[in-house]
Amino acid sequence: MTDVVATKTQSSARHWTVVAGAFIVMIGASIVLSGLLLVTAPIISDLYYQKDAAGNVVLRTVPNGMKVPVEIHGGQGAFLIYFSVLMFAVVIVLMFFAGQLLAKYGSRVMLIVSGIIMTGGLALFAASTGNLTFYIAGALLGLGYGLSIALVPPALINAWFVARRGLVLGIVMAGTAVGGLIWATIGPRLAQSSTGWRGVIWIMAAAMAICTLLPALLLIRNKPADVGLVPYGADITQATAGGPPQAQSGFTYKQALKNANFWIACVSFLMLGSVASVTQVLSIVFRTAAYPDPIDKTSWTPGQLAFYSSLFMVWLTFLVIWKPVLGLLNDKIGLVGMMLISMTLMGLALAYLPSMVYGSSVALMYVAMVFMSAGISNALVTPPLVITQAMGLREFGKIFALAVAFIYVGNAIGAPIWGLLGTSGTTKIGMYVAPVLLALFVIGCTTAVRRGKAQWQQMETQPPQQPAHTPFGRPVAPH
Q1: Domain 1-243 of CATH type 1.20.1250.20
Q2: What is the mean pLDDT of the chain?
Q3: What is the dihedral of CA 432, 438, 443, 449, to 10 degrees?
Q4: Which is it for strands 475-476 and 468-469: parallel, antiparallel or unpaired?
């Protein structure tokens, strides 16, 4: 009878309710990761281009003969600083505060507080009329994102699942791609309608509140023990006997900071983040693939525009598919095998991108987008799996918060580098160097996992050190 009850308890509906809550949270993440980028053009056109008395954009002629808008208030460069502020806030919060706060207050409190902060940030973004308020809004969004969305969903899955952890994590992380598809479908149209870009962002603010507050209040619980359960796939015999929970295996935060394998993983994440930021220049590649002279946008045909959009949709759609597939591959063939497959596919796509121009094989273009999605999906799926295996679960929240910050540091470093390469006409060099960085990423993560796991497992098997005693029976602290 005990075995039957234990089996039911192990795989209760509550486990999957938490998964649903974490998935919804990641849909909210898409607002920060991709939603705001889709309304960038309307914002710049409204606030950063000079208009004449009739409301038309004033143009000027540049030395090569092109006509470009006259920019005001610092132009689009000044506006896009908000994204740098946002990323900087995410990194600072993850490195110094998020892990400790999560350990102290738990996932639900973190989601509620950060949901309120991010909703307020989006509201300020919608009401902004100049650079300063955009920057403050970006800081609020980064603060809230770093405190919760970047950290809470992986921490929840690690707390609630032992078996099928990779698959469940992949499903949850696919929420960002699902949200991205939603915003890509409705965002631009709404921004060009009477709703305007401000109306779209107000809708995003409401969606952020729903995607963070409701799951925290109704669906998510911090850990199985809070509701009398054990993690899915956990050692029930050990739990019933009152043995130490599996989640206590691994390094402490202080031990991780002194462990070389942790820093190898962090540097590997930085390399992946810098390569993944190639997405910032994909629109340029897509234009080159859709039209022989991508600068002359005024002569695009409806068919060319549809093809340009279809490349984006294929990429976003396969982000939804690849994330759970990567998790399944992790469970079936292991983390190293999963990374080898996905990174090889992305490396092939990057090596092909310089050849992805108008007139080349359309089929290969779509295949390249499928391959690219496989690699980009790793930026969210792989880091928690690597840290789980390399450092264990004893203080996962604190350790992962610092480690995942290096993905965002890589994004912050990589994006301007890709932009500089594009400006200087040397993007091809970056495309050919990137596969080398991906190979180093796989090597670094594999090293960190194999060496780190062996170390903390050996540490767990060693008996605790007993204090020495004097002849009079008094303990002496070990030196």
Answers
A1: yes
A2: 86
A3: 180
A4: antiparallel
